[in-house]
Specification:
This protein has about 250 residues and is mostly helical. It has helices at about 5-10, 60-70, 85-105, 110-130, 135-140, 145-160, 165-185, 195-210, 215-230, 235-245, and strands at about 20-25, 30-35, 40-45, 75, 80. It has a three-stranded antiparallel sheet with strand order 1-2-3, with helices on one face. Strands 4-5 form a two-stranded antiparallel sheet.
Length: about 250
């Protein structure tokens, strides 16, 4: 059996500094993703766990270990049962798989599954925050948490239309909240001042807010203030009624 992959790698060269990903259908008929890396090609299932496995009969190790922790009595810390080092290692391996696939989805402009994979990894980080035996054991996955938060925010924002500014601001505010919570949980609140991912999100939010389009209600509000200033109370009353109707969703 021929096992040399040189012809495959030569036909799809690695480009440093860029993300090369593609879709294909596997021999099993299922959709796959491939990600070109410097030493080869990563192939992942597009649905379910990237490697296609079901740990202990569960969809992911996150699900399996949540189920296992429900019946675990010892050891505990602050009332939380603890994972073993080996269980944390399984979570780290799973986090890397989902992280690679999220990146592939994002660069293929498939934003909904990219966001879903980031959400999985954030749930994985929550599990480690609460149940890892030590911060050192949890750190291989926790150090990637800022990237998961940022990539999910970018993916969710890409699903919005240009006129959905309130939804965009909500996505960005949620990301800021996750960053603040993360730095508090690891005991490093001062990192919020220097985190490049958080600074990017805050800058993005400020820019979005600065370019916020003036809504119809905002325009009427300015007209109302002007009418009151001119003591045109009849016009002010009409404007108040119009603002009230718009606020109630009436035409």
């Amino acid at each position: 059996m021929r096992r040399d992959l040189s012809s495959l790698l030569d036909s799809w060269p690695f480009t440093p500094g860029s993300v090369n990903a593609r879709r294909l259908k596997g021999r099993d008929g299922q959709p796959k993703l491939q990600l070109r890396v410097d030493l080869g090609v990563l192939q992942m299932n597009a649905v379910g766990r990237p490697d296609g496995k079901q740990p202990l009969g569960h969809p992911t190790w996150v699900d399996a270990l949540k189920d296992r922790l429900e019946t675990r009595m010892q050891p505990v810390r602050d009332g939380f049962p603890l994972l073993t080092n080996d269980e944390c290692l399984k979570l780290h391996q799973e986090a890397i798989q989902y992280h690679h696939r999220a990146i592939a989805f994002f660069h293929l402009k498939d934003m909904a599954p990219a966001a879903a994979d980031c959400s999985h990894n954030l749930a994985l980080c929550d599990l480690l925050h609460d149940h890892a035996p030590s911060r050192e054991v949890a750190w291989p996955s926790l150090q990637l948490e800022p990237q998961h938060i940022l990539l999910r925010a970018k993916s969710r924002a890409a699903l919005l239309q240009p006129d959905q500014l309130p939804d965009l601001l909500q996505v960005l505010d949620e990301a800021v909240g996750l960053f603040d919570r993360m730095f508090q949980r690891i005991g490093r609140p001062e990192w919020a001042e220097v985190s490049p991912e958080l600074l990017f999100i805050k800058g993005w939010r400020a820019q979005a807010e600065a370019h916020r389009p003036v809504s119809e209600i905002d325009q009427l509000g300015h007209q109302l203030a002007d009418a009151i200033h001119r003591e045109d109370y009849e016009q002010a009353a009409r404007l108040r009624d119009q603002i009230k109707r718009l606020g109630n969703g009436e035409p």
